[in-house]
Amino acid sequence: MLNLTKPSALKRGDKVATVSLSWGGAGDTEFLWRYEQGSRRLRDLYDLEVVAMPHTLAGSETVYEHPEKRAADLMTAFADPSIKAIFSCIGGNDSIRMLPFLDFELMRANPKIFVGYSDSTITHLACLKAGISSFYGPAILSDWAENIQLPTFTADYFWALAFEAKAPLTFDVSDEYTAEFLPWLIENRDIARKFTPNMDGYEVVQGEHTVSGPLLGGCLEVLEMAKGTALFPQPSDFDDAILFLETSEEMPPPWWFEDTLRNYGAQGLLNRVNGMIFGKPQSGKYYDDYRALVVKVLNEFGLAELPVFFNASFGHNEPKITLPYGRMAELSPENRTFKLLETAVE
């Protein structure tokens, strides 16, 4: 079972760093306003001092060409004792290229909050390898920079986890969500995206008994990139886990989802976990297909009783909860509840 070091809680006035570990658009001229809007939101909401690492705003071309500089920014942020948390600017699809340049011992010696989602799954796996609990949650460009205002749902869950150290904490499903694509143009900055009603809470796909275990997971497509590398979790990391999985805006087709999930079964990993919870797919696309395929694949491996929840508000969902790796959580099919059982920070 996972035994990860808890990072220290954030306090108002703390210094935090922003990093571009995948796509480097935060520094591109046409998107810089968006970065500034997200950084300002962190300052306004939580009184944080936000600093960019040396290459955070170097632009997408430079960031793409230099994965070693991305890794150097991450290592610098971990090593700097004045920096209390690290925020990913955005995902992408190639942060796996940082792998040769990561210093896991340096990270282990300097535990602190890292927060991001999507391609940031790679950095979460690096934290996992270093023995640090990290936060699968909001990114600067896609979340903190939401036009007009950050949804209270997103802001409150991050506060409860990172500042308040609240536990137990019930992870609700947001009453509404948005999947509207509004181009990141400065002339759109005062236009709010349209939110629509969500499904009523979690859907219990299968299972009847309450289970608990440490949180482990991420973006399914990015986890595939990590397979076969030093970053992919060890089989024992899945022991008794609550496995949280979600798909990206690429909306992988059902056949891919089925094959990928079956691979986890063939590795014996699904037989190790205590339960699974899936984020709502982008725009709800393939929701029914994915649900049917989860039941099908789990049945193939004799796991028809494994508790499985759908429709969770994390990952590629707006608004979203924040999930702390390695912290004990509970799935209760009878009550249709998903709870954090322990504090996420010291």
UniProtKB/TrEMBL annotation:
Superkingdom, natural source: Bacteria
Record-annotated LD-carboxypeptidase C-terminal domain positions: 212-331
Domain LD-carboxypeptidase N-terminal: 16-137
CDD domains: Peptidase_S66_mccF_like
Keywords noted in UniProt: Hydrolase
Family, as annotated: Belongs to the peptidase S66 family.
Name by which UniProt lists this protein: Microcin immunity protein
Organism: Listeria floridensis FSL S10-1187
Record lineage: Bacteria, Bacillati, Bacillota, Bacilli, Bacillales
